[in-house]
Amino acid sequence: MIRESELILNPDQSIYHLHLQPEHLADTIITVGDPNRVAAVSKHFDEMEFQLSKREFVTHTGRIGDKRLSVISTGIGPDNIDIVFNELDALFNVDFETRTVKEDLQALKFIRLGTSGSLQAHIPVDSFLISTHAIGLDNLMSFYDFPQSDSQQAWRHSLKTAVPALPGQPHIFKAPGSLAGLFPTNFFRGITLTCPGFYAPQGRQIRLASKITSAVFDQMRLFQIEGKEITNMEMETAAMYGMAGLLGHEAISCNAILANRVDRTFSTNPTAVVAQMIEEVLELLVGG
User: Fold this and answer.
1) Where do runs of H (alpha helix) occur along 142-225?
2) Dihedrals φ, ψ of 233, to 5°?
């Protein structure tokens, strides 16, 4: 039995942070960082079944045609992914009455719709990219007890050799499942670097110096896994892939490229770019 201090429920038997109950969710779940982006997705629903807002976690569930979808805001960063993915999994795979894990586990589909900065000159602003792999510079997955495959250990060794000044002990994950197959070739594909912050962890400097220098960027751009290069930086994908993979779910991260860190450009209309990404991905999900 899972203790009350481990699986915390509210008085209405909803899960602690998200305040959701199992019937509130579809098994295909779109995640966004920004709570305001939830409505930008759900406005395309033909039917709205459920809406809830708690803290930074906003959830909408509805249908497009016969396809039932949920969209939930995670907030920014891997620590929030830890909360959201554990609680969403529990809603489907734990019996709250008996506080036991169900015998028949349900696999979910997670699609992240996020924003990101390109690390490669040939990936321009206003383009879209899906993450075939993710490198986590955060320490979230260091707290989970799981065996790393021979491939993951080899990837980590190669990365530390290629980019010796890279801080920490990165965890490297491949996108779990087959959702990448939904996306056409006009979506770039590459390795996403997940950072535990927006400024120094991504090489930005205002008053404080960053260890991610131009030399480190140059080394990262040359690194490859399975023929894929490090293409972009953001703050959730590696944690998402790690959590989803360990829990037996599918996940894919789709990124709207708003900045190019090579030519130092930024999208002139980021709202329109994100809106286009949402429309294209929803069409792929409903069609698939």
Assistant:
1) 150-162, 214-222
2) -125, 140
Q: What is the pTM assigned to this prediction?
A: 0.96
**Pair type for strands 57-64 and 67-73:** antiparallel
Tokens of 43: 């406005």
The count of structural domains within the chain is 1
CATH number, domain of 187, equals 3.40.50.1580
Higher pLDDT, 63 or 167: 63
> In the chain, how long is the greatest CA-to-CA distance?
56
What tokens does 206 get? Answer: 């205002």
Is residue 264 in some structural domain? yes
In a domain, 5, yes or no: no
Banded model confidence at residue 204, pLDDT cuts 50, 70, 90: very high
Look up the domain containing 170 and give its range. Answer: 22-287
The pLDDT score that the predictor gives to residue 251 is 98
Reported confidence tier of residue 252, pLDDT bands at 50, 70, 90: very high
List residues bridging with 163 in a β-sheet.
none
